[in-house]
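Notes to self after the call with IL:
- keep both proteins in one doc
- input above output, always
- annotate only the second one for now

Protein 1:
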Amino acid sequence: MTNSNRVQVSNDQNRSFKKKGSFFSNLSPVKSINPWGVVVLASTFLLMIGSVFLVFDLQNDFHQFREDRINSTIGLIFLVVATGLFIFKAGFFIYNLFLYFRYKAVKSVSNEELPTCTVIVPAYNEGKQVWDTLMSLADSDYPDGKLELLAIDDGSKDDTWYWMQQAKKKLGDRLSILQQPKNKGKRHALYRGFNIGKGEVFVTVDSDSVVKPDTLRNLVSPFVVNENCGAVAGNIRVLNNERALLPKMLNVSFVLSFEFVRSAESSLNSVLCTPGALAAYRRSAVFACLEDWINQTFMGQPSDIGEDRAMTNMILKQGKHVLFQRNAYCYTNVPEQYKGLYKMFIRWGRSNVRENIQMSKYVFTNFREGSKLGTRLLFISQSSKIIMSYPFLVFMLFFIVMHPVLFISSTFFSILILSSFPVLFYAKRYKLSESFWAYSYSVLYTFGLFWITPYAIATASRRGWLTRELTEKK
């Protein structure tokens, strides 16, 4: 980077930092109509509307298909299992609705009550984005003297370390920066931060994320009002949702995943995963499992993925509560291309398989005081998706080969019915115009990502982050 470029960058930084919360003034830029987006949404609706007519027009064919399955031993077994799963999922959804309406975020406590807090930001090949992350954290409405910022460069190959140094110059003693001698993985960077940090609460923030000024105080407040709280999950939204179509879809998906699913899990004190983008942990809970966490293996290989889910699992195992704070917002970048998306999902899928196995070892024991039924139901629901992935894949392929028209029509009809809830949920919470991306995301997932879980199961022992190299992010 030339000196003239650095001067220009420095001027840009000063302008962006003058206004508190200026990062969020850029989250809602002037929106222009994306012709490709209009085509995608219009095609989605045409396919779903067409499927409605086909489903009603082909009633006799669907009836004959059901009769054929009933008259087949294998088909009958599958229908019975599928019906049982549907009844369970429907009942579980109603249960989640009840839990969602019961959920209430903890309000921020006073400055005097807030605990000392160490924020750890691990970064690898993040470039200038790490500057924005650190500046947004420095803008936090958190008492002076109670906030410690640690940024750790995990052996990046780009200019991440330079941007950390620039942030250090700007923030002075408010920020400490460290550099790993070589890339060892996010888990090891966090481990170093946990051992150095002095706070009563650790907060981990991904280096491609920004937070609101009140995020940190909202995130850590549950530790004050609930002495058995071991971890807290933040509310994750998409930062780059105006750049491409995939982030638009994921933005709607994230709202359902966090504001509905994790709200319900939080009502049971059992959020299953505190996201790497924004999570908080009680110091004592971290050190109670830190050595097991850093030395975790799967099938004889060191675990270098799923560090957030693993930490959550180990804290739940201690009998601690894991909660969700809907009022603690974090905006993170997500993949804009299909390749980056499926790699991210594969990593998540492998972690899900591994940690469900680990959870099965304690969830049916007396691991916590009080009721454990809700936590066990959450585990059963997640495990059923994994267990049934191969049978449903086989059935889907059979359905496609033998009755392609029935498959296409019934699938799009199902998407119309089942995806209407996330559409309505997002529209109620945010904007109706953005909510329709839930339909397109369901189409993408059904036809373009259906293979993720079976593949993740088959390759669960494989290591590697898969992304974060210089040619791709996330």
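Protein 2 (the one to annotate):
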Amino acid sequence: MEMNEMFQPGEVVYVIVRNPHVQGVAHVQQAAVVVNPDKPYELALFSHETYYPLTDDFAVFKSEAEAERAYQEAFGTANIEDVDYFG
């Protein structure tokens, strides 16, 4: 099933976004599924005033909990208490 068939305009979804400027930094971010303003027959993700095509390039989740689980599987947990910091 294609991404455009899995979601409906108006749905709130969660995506894992990597920081393009810092290697290894990513976070879960909320986005809205909308009709792509450039291609009205396709859907897009709208987040932070920007449209992104809804493609398989994005890991899109229907719930924040599901996105957080996938994030932890991919990147591990960042438990500050378990980290020794000297500085």
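Annotation: The chain has two helices and five strands. The first strand starts at residue 12 and ends at 18.
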